[in-house]
Write a structure and sequence with these properties.
The protein is mainly α. The protein is built from nine helices and no strands. The longest helix has 16 residues. It is globular and about 60 Å long.
Length: 251
């Protein structure tokens, strides 16, 4: 099978070298090719057609809903809540909820449990009523897939920071791992740079085990505000609890 998309034939004399001319010309050339070749050529031509005349491409920088959800969580953890911004982010999260009740990692994708747990928790921090239809739907989707206890380690660390999950429910990653010699099977220099930017902060968090209730006076005030708004123990209603989480009370 030919995995190399066919080259575009030269344009007839007198026609301008415009992007709009490339697409139909190329599609005619691959009409008799395999479905894979046609798909590759169509994708390539669609990108070429969107190229700026100066040579670059410009699109909106998007991320899945874990990023805006984590931003709400960060504001509450630091007790630096920008209410108008939080309202916009919460509205964005509600608008991205899929028909299956949760949140995917890409448009029209399958439900991602960890992303859904974070989005659900962020909306509760933002003040959404747990009995609202979209929250009921999200909670049911989480429980149907085994509960928040089955979310990934990053999500469980985030929940532990808010005291919603005991730290013993998170894999222990000692900060002293930074001192391992280079001849050891694992060394920080042996992982990619973007992994290091994630791993090093997690080493510190897993060693110090901070919680919003005890990190600072402002964080304690934030926690009291959450209790007042009925948000404390906001995720345990989504737990199907393993033994490591037996101390977390149900909402």
């Amino acid at each position: 099978m030919n995995r190399t998309a066919p080259k575009t034939a030269p344009l007839p004399t007198g026609q301008p070298d415009a992007r709009g001319d490339i697409v139909p010309l190329t599609l005619r050339r691959v009409a008799d090719s395999s479905p894979l070749d046609r798909a590759i050529a169509e994708a390539r031509d669609a990108l070429i057609a969107q190229q700026n005349e100066r040579g670059y491409w410009l699109y909106e920088l998007e991320a899945d809903c874990t990023i805006p959800a984590e931003y709400i969580m960060m504001m509450h953890f630091l007790d630096e809540i920008d209410a108008p911004l939080q309202a916009k982010i919460a509205n964005h999260l509600r608008g991205r909820q899929a028909e299956h009740g949760g949140w995917p990692l890409y448009h029209n994708g399958e439900l991602d449990l960890s992303c859904t747990v974070k989005a659900y928790y962020a909306l509760k921090l933002a003040g959404d009523d747990v009995h609202a239809p979209h929250m009921v739907k999200a909670r049911a989707a989480i429980l149907q897939r085994g509960g928040a206890a089955r979310s990934n380690v990053f999500t469980r660390i985030a929940l532990a920071l808010f005291g919603e999950l005991p730290w013993r429910g998170v894999p222990y990653i000692p900060v002293e791992i930074m001192l391992l010699p280079k001849w050891f099977p694992f060394h920080i220099d042996k992982v990619s740079y973007w992994s290091r930017t994630v791993m090093v902060p997690l080493f510190l968090l897993c060693t110090r085990r901070p919680r919003i209730r005890a990190t600072s006076a402002s964080a304690s005030c934030s926690r009291r505000r959450l209790r007042k708004n009925g948000i404390t123990s906001s995720v345990p209603e989504c737990w199907q609890r393993p033994s490591c989480c037996s101390t977390t009370s149900a909402a």
